[in-house]
Structure formats: structure tokens, C-alpha cells
Amino acid sequence: MKIFLDRQSSKPIYLQIYDRINRLIKSGALQPGDHLPSIRSLAESLQVNKLTIIEAYNILTAEDAISARQGSGYFINTQPLKNTNLKQTFAPAQDVIIREPGSNSFFDMHMAAVQAQTQPEMINLSYGVPRPPKDIMQIAKRALKQADALHNYDLPQGQLTLRRQIAQMLVHLGLDVSTEDLIVTNGSEQALSLAMYHFVKPGDWVIVEAPTYFGAIAILENLGAKIIGIPMTAEGMNLELLEQYLKSHRPKLIYTISTLHNPTGLTTSPEHRQKLLTLAQEYECSILEDNAYEGLNFEPVPSPIKAIDKHNIVTYVGTFSKTLMPGLRVGYMVVTGKHYQPILERKLFHDVHVSSVSQAIVSEYLASGHYRRRLNQLRSENIQSRNFTVQAMEHYFPASAKWTIPKGGLFLWVQLPANVPIQAISQEALSYNILIFGGSGFFPDKQGYPAMRLTFANSPQDIEQGISVLGKLLKRSLCKEFQSKGKYSKAS
Ligand SMILES: Cc1ncc(COP(=O)(O)O)c(C=O)c1O
């Protein structure tokens, strides 16, 4: 059991210990019947007096959260609380961002995230990956039995069996897709790149949500597009502003993450989807719909925009990176009508096709029925960790912080007062082994946005420690700001 103590805090140490254990019980990380560390061992590991632990355990006992059993120590005896009363407070500024081609920070953000994986002490609140599937070795062995079929070059659009399975999966989402509309890609990043290079030429205008996925901004910058960032509201991209810019700039493409948006976690309504599609149609603009978090919803979400697209306006992108393993690099795209062939040809000269071994593993996973079970497990783990993250923020974050409450996916978005130096706070958090992504990288102009994206796909202990430290850093920064303003007003 990891307990982080803030020895500079005015809160007594025994109350901090009580608080942490209480929260671990409420989150479900400590379950009824679990054994607590002995008084002596916890005192030693936290380097505090045994009386301090006894005081904390006494309060928990008095509250009926734990009980002592003669000769065996302390055990948890409460039921974990389910929080059904989470408040979403997201209310972003509505400034449109216009971005001429320039450099991007995708490389730096990706490298920071990958390097964090090699540091076991690091609490990674920056980006989310699913935990590795336990049965992957068994599935991979079965997949490799077809080695004969795997040793040669294959179709650029991907294996037929896998495309059939993906098409069936998409039918459940309301998409009427045939295997002839599908291309299996090296992750959805490649699908985004193939689509963006197909629909957009250097100098063309493209609309993205602001904030949006930084890997998509990077591709657009790389191809020399001019980017318009339309602000998000709590309902999705601001459609009034979208219409204005469709009219004035005549963009070629709208890139949208309509479901479990990265980074905000928001999902748009069926009405919003219909209106977005109608506008795109009216102004002859293609839509690229990125559904990277497909399947990770723990509340119902509407069908994708592609499901209501009758005129081949929407290209749809999905991936197995967020539900199985990003290392497999298997994503896919649905391209209908005249765009299919040129995109497929582009795919061929990029990398011929996706690794047949990876495709066979995903295919075996889908055939086995394990995939459905895996999604159910991920959803039930993720809802718990989302709830726990929100509870921890309510507890530790300053009252001025606002956040979204996603219906699934892996991220939520925290907006902070304008004066919070989020870059400096990210740096300081690193010295506590906590990695976060500040908000700026998710906007096309990357200017200092006082916001951060947090993943909730972490253990309760890591969430508790990460959020409590971040809360302390945020409060301290706001307090400094308040004091410096006080000094200034006295002097002036
Ligand atoms: C919204 C979104 N799209 C696409 C991707 C790319 O993922 P992959 O290439 O692993 O499928 C990501 C990865 O984080 C993402 O968040």
C-alpha cells in the first residue's frame, strides 16, 4: 500500500494516513476482507511513530471502516462507495485559433510518454494505454499456427478475414460497411495520415476541434495545411463558429473526434452529429471522423457520424490500440466511394501492408469471443478509475479548477485559472515522478493554455498520489499568485 505524506502540510500526519486509507477503501482499491499492514510495518515504511498509525486506525475503526481481529491485525469491513454524484464543470473560452504551417510538438510529447514507460517509479497521468491482455500469449500462439498463410506478402487493404470481422463489429455501431470499404492500417495514426494527405493539399484550410489530438495536428502541419481551431463547448465543436469559418475559409476537411474526444473526453449528441454533417455537405467539405476510443464507453453513446452519411462525406477511423495493445499497430479506416482506390494505392507505397502477424493476432482475438469479455473488463475498471480520479480532484484540486466527466475513453480535461503556469507545474510534477501533459500541445497554436489532460487509466494508489501532489502544486501556485497580487496592490 503506497501512502504519500506531505510533511510540510498543516494537516496532521495521522489524519493524512486516515484520509488516504479511507479514500482507497472508497475507491474499491481496498476491498472488504483485505488485510491492512500491521501498525509496526506501516510505521516503519512511513517513518512515523507507531502511535500515529494507531490514531489513524482508531478513527477508521470508530467509523466502522476497518476492524481488528484478535492476533491477526486489521481488516477492511466496509463496502466500497459508488459515486453517482459527479459534477462536470467544463466551460471553455470560445476563441477561434488560426494557425499557419509551423513546427509541432508531437515528437517531444510522444518521446516523453514512451520514456516514462521505462521508469517504474513514474506515475503516468499523461497518456493512457490499456493494461496488456492476460491471454495475449495464448491467442498469439493460436494465430501463429497459420504460419504458412503469414509468411508471404499480403493485400494492401489487409486480410479478408480480419476485414470481415471489423465490418461485423462496425455493423453493431450502426455502420453499413462491407469488406470492400475497409483498409487495415498501421494504427489509426496511419489512417489519419492517409486520409489527410488525400483530402488536403499544402495551403488548404482544415478545421479541427480546439483542443484536439496532437498527433493529428502534427500530420496537418507536416503536409503544410492551414489550421482553424474551432473551440469546443460542453456539447462538442461550436457549430455557429464552424459555420462562419466554413463560409469564410472554405476548408477542405473537418477533423473530428465525435465520441470520447481526446483530450476532453466529451461525446457529441445525435443532433450535433447531424448538424455537423449537414453543414459539411452544404459547404462541400469532407469529414474525417476519428473514433480511436470506440468500444471504451461505459455509458451508451450515439452511432458515429459515418452511420448517417449517405453521400460519402465521412471517412471513419478506428484502432485496436486502445482496447488491445498499441504495440500491435492495427487500426483501420472506412473509405466509401471514389476515395477508396487512391487511398489504397497510397497505402501500398507507404508500407505495402500491415504486419500479417499482428493482423492474425487481432483476428484470432476477435474470433475467440475474448474481445467482448476484454471490453467489458476494461469498461468496468475504467469507470471505477474515472470516479476515483474525479473524487480525488474534488478533494485535492483548488475550487477554481473545472473538468469534464467523460462517458468512457481514457482521458478527462482539467481547465485552470488563466494565471496558472501549467508548464512550470508539469516540470515540478516530474520531480515527484508524475508525468502530465499541459494543455498547450492540444491546440493548433500551442500557446500557453492553462489546462491539462489527465488519464484515469491508473491504479487507485497512483491516482491518489498523482492527484494529491498535483493539487498541492496547483494550490501553491495560486496562493503565490494571490500573494504577489496583494503586494502589488499595496505598493500601487
Ligand atoms: C484520437 C486519437 N487518434 C489516433 C491515435 C493514434 O493511435 P494508434 O495509431 O495507436 O491507433 C490516438 C492515439 O493516442 C488518438 O488518441
Write the layout of secondary structure elements.
Elements: H1 13-27, H2 39-46, H3 50-62, E1 66-69, E2 73-76, E3 97-99, H4 106-117, E4 123-124, H5 136-144, H6 147-150, H7 160-172, E5 182-186, H8 187-199, E6 205-210, H9 214-222, E7 226-233, E8 236-237, H10 239-249, E9 253-256, H11 270-282, E10 286-290, E11 314-319, E12 330-334, H12 340-351, H13 356-368, H14 370-396, E13 402-403, E14 411-415, H15 422-431, E15 434-435, E16 437-438, E17 451-455, H16 460-491
Parallel strand pairs: 4-15, 6-7, 6-9, 9-10, 10-11
Antiparallel strand pairs: 1-2, 3-7, 5-12, 7-8, 11-12, 13-14, 14-17, 16-17
Bound molecules: pyridoxal-5'-phosphate (PLP).
Pyridoxal-5'-phosphate (PLP) binds next to helix 8.
In short:
With 492 residues, the protein is an alpha/beta fold. The protein contains 16 helices and 17 strands.
Distance, first to last CA: 51 Å
Low-confidence stretches: 487-492
> If you consult CATH, what is the topology of the largest domain?
Aspartate Aminotransferase, domain 2
**What portion of the residues fall into strands of 2 or more residues?**
5-15%
Mean of residue pLDDT values: 89
**Which architecture of the largest domain per CATH?**
3-Layer(aba) Sandwich
Describe this structure in words.
The structure is a single chain. The chain has 492 residues and is of the alpha/beta class. It has three domains: 13-76, Arc Repressor Mutant, subunit A (Orthogonal Bundle); 97-104 and 134-371, Type I PLP-dependent aspartate aminotransferase-like (Major domain) (Aspartate Aminotransferase, domain 2), CATH 3.40.640; 378-491, Alpha-Beta Complex (Aspartate Aminotransferase, domain 1). It has helices at residues 13-27, 39-46, 50-62, 106-117, 136-144, 147-150, 160-172, 187-199, 214-222, 239-249, 270-282, 340-351, 356-368, 370-396, 422-431, 460-491, and strands at residues 66-69, 73-76, 97-99, 123-124, 182-186, 205-210, 226-233, 236-237, 253-256, 286-290, 314-319, 330-334, 402-403, 411-415, 434-435, 437-438, 451-455. Strands 3, 5, 6, 7, 8, 9, 10, 11 and 12 form a nine-stranded mixed sheet that branches. A four-stranded antiparallel sheet has the order 13-14-17-16. It is globular. It starts with 12 loop residues before the first helix and ends with a helix. The model is unreliable at 487-492 (pLDDT under 50). Pyridoxal-5'-phosphate (PLP) binds at residues 187-189, 213, 215, 257, 262, 290, 292, 319, 321, 326, 331.
